[in-house]
UniProtKB/TrEMBL annotation:
Source organism of this protein record: Nitrospira defluvii
Signal peptide coordinates: 1-23
Name of a matching Pfam family: PBP_like_2
Record protein name field: Phosphate ABC transporter, periplasmic phosphate-binding protein PstS (TC 3.A.1.7.1)
InterPro entries: PBP_domain, Phosphate_ABC_transporter
Length: 274
């Protein structure tokens, strides 16, 4: 899987040089998803429609949907995912760091990638086992069938290993409040998109993000790959040439599109022209 993802970045920017610069397009399409990308995709779609008045995009988001199946059955044109899939055109438009969040009073210094895997597999019962407080660990999981959850499990090699008894919280806002408000305050831990996590820290919520492999979870470390927990944000579509799909991909990779994406995700590093 790593090799499949690693080629997406260069493929995405090759796409830019292969397309005419912002030729206005017309038509309609549906973008489907079920992960945390809904808001940013709606913003991208709105900006794209503004630049292309004869183009219409419907963003369909449902936690119980199967976006790839919708593309296969022609119910959707693009699926937003975090994993490439054989038989689909795949274009990366951003990176999403996955942050490990605890209460601000939890003094656990850092964790390794292996420790994160073992933590969410239920191996550790007390934070003291990881150099933290002598408090029982409360795991907070995210919904199944969501891009972050799928990527988190795959990155750590723990697919199917998160205990079934773990409490699942769907919304980022709610899981952040739960980490901040659970008693004892230094017990809870969860994972979520880095953008939402950094916003919570900046706004004064009493939470902190654990360094992983001695690397702080920050936009620059996600962009250059030093932070190990990151997933690509991908647009998947059928392989048949579609000018509207290609124009939307190009827009997402443009300076304007990347600026919109940077509000929630880590934009792709710029490459030098050959």
């Amino acid at each position: 899987m790593v090799s499949r993802i690693s080629g997406l970045l260069s493929a995405s920017f090759l796409l830019l040089s292969a397309l005419p610069a912002f030729a206005e397009v017309a038509g309609s399409m549906v973008i489907a998803g079920h992960g945390p990308e809904q808001h940013v995709m709606e913003s991208l779609a709105h900006a794209f429609e503004k630049a292309n008045p004869r183009a219409y995009i419907d963003v369909v988001w449902d936690d119980n949907s199967k976006p790839l199946e919708m593309v296969k059955s022609k119910q959707a044109t693009i699926a937003v995912t975090g994993t490439p899939e054989d038989g689909f055109r795949s274009v990366q438009i951003a990176w999403d760091g996955i942050a490990i969040m605890v209460h601000r009073s939890n003094f656990t210094k850092e964790v390794s990638k292996q420790e994160v895997a073992e933590l969410f597999s239920g191996k550790y019962k007390f934070w003291a086992d990881l150099g933290g407080p002598d408090t029982k660990i409360l795991l907070l999981d995210r919904p199944r069938n969501e891009n972050n959850r799928d990527a988190f499990e795959q990155l750590l090699g723990i697919v199917g290993k998160i205990p079934d008894t773990t409490k699942v919280i769907a919304k980022d806002e709610k899981v952040i409040k739960t980490v901040a408000g659970t008693l004892p305050p230094n017990s809870a831990v969860t994972y979520l998109s880095l953008g939402q996590a950094l916003e919570a820290v900046a706004s004064g919520v009493p939470v902190r993000l654990l360094p992983v492999e001695k690397v702080e979870p920050e936009t620059p470390t996600v962009k250059d790959g030093r932070y190990p927990l990151r997933r690509p944000v991908l647009l998947l579509s059928n392989n048949e040439p579609d000018p509207l799909v290609q124009a939307f991909e190009q827009f997402a990779l443009s300076d304007e599109g990347q600026k919109i994406l940077s509000e929630s995700y880590t934009p792709l590093p710029k490459t030098s022209s050959p």
